[in-house]
């Protein structure tokens, strides 16, 4: 069984801590409030989140973000580097299941309901060929039509190397 390690939450030191197993607790005030593990809620995207309050101002945080900041030294920077769940389970917020990756890697990782197992490749019914496309600055760039799915993927990979 994994040992649970606790660390302070940045900007909420002395109020809340997050654990290496993805739990969040309120530290209480030793007089009227006791220390307690908070019950997370699922947000509409399927991630666990908690509400933290400081000076009576509540804020919402995704637990995987809190774990990554505390244990992986993640510094949120928009969408350049993001927190990825290695096993693709959005509710498994253990430190061992999280990694910091590029946004491109994260979006390439999951393949659900696609006609190809390769990123940037899809089956074009009208031509009965594989097509390869890549997105750059929110624009789709057509890389060609191919008889072979692997060749379409290679075109995508080659273009990716030039970016």
Describe this structure in words.
The chain folds into two domains: 6-107, Homing Intron 3 (I-Ppo) Encoded Endonuclease, Chain A (Alpha-Beta Complex); 111-162, 2-Layer Sandwich (GCC-box Binding Domain). The model has no long low-confidence stretch (mean pLDDT 88). It is α+β, with helices and mostly antiparallel strands and 163 residues long. The protein starts with 5 loop residues before the first strand and ends with a helix. It contains three helices and twelve strands, in the order E-E-E-E-E-E-E-H-E-E-H-E-E-E-H. The protein is elongated, with a radius of gyration of 21 Å. The strands form four sheets. It has a four-stranded antiparallel β-sheet with strand order 1-2-3-4, with helices on one face. The chain has a three-stranded antiparallel β-sheet with strand order 5-6-7. A three-stranded antiparallel β-sheet has the order 10-11-12, covered by helices on one side. A hairpin with a 4-residue loop joins strand 10 (121-124) and strand 11 (129-136).
Helix/strand order, N-terminal first: EEEEEEEHEEHEEEH
Molecular shape = elongated
Q: How much of the polypeptide forms β-strand, as a percent range? A: 25-35%
Q: What spatial order of strands do you see in the largest sheet?
A: 1-2-3-4
- Specify Rg, calculated over alpha carbons: 21 Å
Mean pLDDT across residues: 88
Q: Tell how many strands the DSSP assignment holds.
A: 12
Separation, N- and C-terminal Cα atoms: 44 Å
Low-confidence stretches: none
